[in-house]
Amino acid sequence: EAAARAVDVWKSYGTGEAAVTALGGVSVELDRGRFTAIMGPSGSGKSTLMHCLAGLDTIDSGDVWIGDTKVNGLRDKGLTELRRDRVGFIFQQFNLLPTLTAEENITLPLAIGGRKVDRAWFDLVVETVGLRDRLSHRPTQLSGGQQQRVACARALVSRPQVVFADEPTGNLDSRSGAEVLGFLRRSSTEFDQTIVMVTHDAVAASYADRVIFLADGRIVRELHHPTADAVL
Ligand code: ADP
Ligand code: ADP
């Protein structure tokens, strides 16, 4: 069974003359434990596809599945639970809470969902992301790369079915970016974590198992085990 699936998804913004088709019949299956990158020019529908898969945005027609849950069949309560408990997010801007320590930021999704921290899993994620000696630091005391690794740990701590990363290296220097990408890759190979990442960067995309290219709201090309040269 796929970790996530889009079936002939259509989505437009606006109405009448002003309507813009952001997704024009996208079908894609994301296998469990795989790391997929979504690339394409600005305005090609990458963010829309990610938001529709994650249940952050509604679709006009088609179906979106996370595991065996049909996302477009959910009502408010189900959508809230899906976003809170079953998917994880990593953003370009880190989006950490400044008054909380790294540890509190990482465990926040569990606290909000009223769930217990699995200490062994927490320790493994923190160790893998290299933050063990930074847990009591607040975001302002951390470098950009460290802040994004906190955000990665936060995304993984609830063992979500899919982690969605939107330009996760967009605000990082290449070395910090490589650390974050290395972590995402390891979380797919070692933890069987399904990852979907939107990126403009061919080097970033080359960390993925698979790259999907969008143009004008459609999938136009796909690469498996890409090299950075092939992505360009
Ligand atoms: P990308 O992430 O590849 O840059 P988007 O998914 O953001 O592309 O956008 C796809 C298309 O949908 C673009 O034409 C964009 O202008 C349009 N679009 C995206 N979000 C909105 C919105 N909230 N309102 C109106 N149009 C939007
Ligand atoms: P193989 O499975 O023999 O390696 P494929 O061409 O089917 O050959 O796939 C090559 C690689 O592309 C896979 O190992 C995986 O990394 C990636 N891939 C294939 N299908 C998917 C999928 N549905 N979701 C995510 N990644 C995929």
TrEMBL record:
Keywords: ATP-binding, Nucleotide-binding, Transport. Residues 4-232 form the ABC transporter domain. One of its GO terms (cellular component) is plasma membrane. It comes from the Bacteria. One of its GO terms (molecular function) is transmembrane transporter activity. It holds the Pfam family ABC_tran. CDD domains: ABC_MJ0796_LolCDE_FtsE. PANTHER family: ABC TRANSPORTER RELATED (PTHR24220:SF685), IMPORT ATP-BINDING PROTEIN (PTHR24220). This is Putative ABC transport system ATP-binding protein. It comes from Saccharothrix violaceirubra. The lineage of its organism: Bacteria, Bacillati, Actinomycetota, Actinomycetes, Pseudonocardiales.
